Backbone:
């Protein structure tokens, strides 16, 4: 029997490779390759996006879609990527708080409230109406409405920073509305779970307890921010170790985020208010510069990519495709229209009103959290959860270009934004 020389050569080569590389070791350290791939893809995609006239975050989000299960399948969500991404979004919102002018934040209270209320009511009604039209039970329809209520401004924050509008009246209104939207969304979620799943979480006592925890959280945030944090930073600045201010700034962001979750809110609310409180301190500028470097060099890029990685649409049945398209359109339009109506009530002009509406479109990680809760409690099926992932991805992807359309006219970049633009390129 003749010897197959090419085959023998391949086998010898494979044996040689196996002898050099321990496959079990390669499996254990594959996360190093994955993280390096994420950082490379994000930086080049962000650069290309800016070359094409779009915010860099648009390309960074698409990098996750391309690397993920939808296109190349090179990366998949892992516990490590998920946890690093969570740190990334916490630090991103912490930076947003540091950049916020607290006087403007207080001035925009009425505008933020009207935008938040309108931005909750319209998506809830719209989502519920679509679900009922497609024949779902009332319990499922209520939860689908709740899914569309969710708002995550993490992507909007980065886009507004690049456009130099984060500290504008419109930018502060979007941030304030997002905080209120989160609180209203939690209350709606609690009510829906109680009324549809029969748990005690949605009765009057449960809602009152939730409201009490939220009030206590904000009282503690104000007290700690005004009285304790300045004292802590004054004391630790004398410690004989490296990067003390940076370390304690990140500690504050993480602990405030943890406290927010313990009080029933999203962790990004806590980290945002940690930054907001420290924006009044003497260490604001030093802290912002150092946290920005740490965040955008590692953690924030992982967060952007992680959003695209969850988009595995292989489980979508053809019968759900039309409904998903309709729900996605409703999810986008109801936030834009609701936010714009709220902004008009607060006397913004038409362009700014639409821009504010666009700023609260993205559902982001908040929408995924709500969807996961519904799935675990049996309120939605796995198909609806997959549809939720698609809606989250679609609303997140359309946010940067829409904000660019509405806010690119009057750019007023502060120094930090100029620096960020350079870093992104």
Residues:
């Amino acid at each position: 029997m003749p010897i197959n020389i090419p085959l023998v050569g391949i086998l010898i080569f494979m044996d040689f490779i196996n002898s050099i590389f321990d496959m079990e070791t390669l499996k254990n350290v594959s996360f190093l390759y994955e993280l390096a791939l994420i950082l490379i893809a994000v930086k080049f995609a962000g650069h290309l996006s800016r070359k094409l006239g779009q915010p860099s975050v648009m390309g960074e989000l698409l990098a996750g879609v391309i690397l993920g299960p939808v296109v190349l399948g090179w990366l998949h969500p892992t516990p490590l990527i998920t946890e690093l991404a969570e740190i990334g979004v916490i630090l991103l919102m912490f930076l947003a708080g540091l950049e916020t002018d607290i006087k403007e934040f207080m001035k925009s209270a009425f505008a933020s409230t009207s935008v938040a209320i309108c931005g909750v009511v319209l998506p809830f009604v719209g989502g519920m109406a679509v679900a009922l039209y497609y024949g779902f039970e009332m319990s499922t329809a209520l939860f689908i409405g709740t899914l569309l209520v969710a708002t995550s401004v993490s992507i909007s924050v980065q886009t507004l920073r690049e456009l130099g509008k984060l500290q504008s009246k419109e930018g502060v209104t979007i941030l304030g509305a997002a905080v209120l939207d989160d609180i209203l969304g939690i209350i709606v979620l609690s009510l829906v779970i109680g009324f549809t799943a029969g748990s005690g979480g949605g009765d009057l006592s449960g809602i009152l307890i939730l409201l009490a925890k939220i009030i206590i959280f904000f009282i503690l945030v104000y007290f700690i921010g005004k009285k304790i944090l300045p004292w802590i930073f004054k004391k630790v600045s004398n410690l004989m170790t490296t990067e003390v201010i940076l370390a304690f700034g990140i500690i504050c962001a993480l602990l405030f985020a943890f406290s927010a979750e313990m009080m029933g809110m999203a962790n990004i609310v806590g980290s945002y208010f940690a930054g907001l409180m420290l924006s009044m301190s003497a260490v604001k500028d030093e802290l912002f510069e150092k946290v920005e470097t740490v965040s955008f060099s590692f953690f924030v890029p992982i967060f952007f990519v992680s959003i695209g990685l969850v988009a595995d649409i292989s489980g979508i049945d053809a019968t759900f495709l039309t409904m998903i398209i309709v729900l996605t359109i409703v999810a986008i339009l109801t936030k834009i229209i609701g936010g714009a109506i709220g902004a008009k009530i607060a006397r913004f002009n038409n362009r700014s009103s639409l821009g504010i509406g666009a700023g609260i479109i993205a559902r982001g990680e908040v929408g995924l959290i709500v969807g996961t809760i519904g799935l675990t409690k049996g309120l939605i099926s796995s198909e609806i959860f997959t549809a939720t992932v698609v809606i989250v991805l679609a609303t997140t992807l359309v946010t940067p270009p829409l904000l660019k359309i509405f806010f690119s006219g009057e750019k007023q970049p502060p120094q930090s934004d100029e620096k960020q633009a350079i870093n992104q390129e």
About this structure: The chain has one domain: 55-417. Confidence is low (pLDDT under 50) at residues 198-202, 411-425. The two ends are 61 Å apart (CA to CA). Residues 204-236 form the longest helix (33 residues).
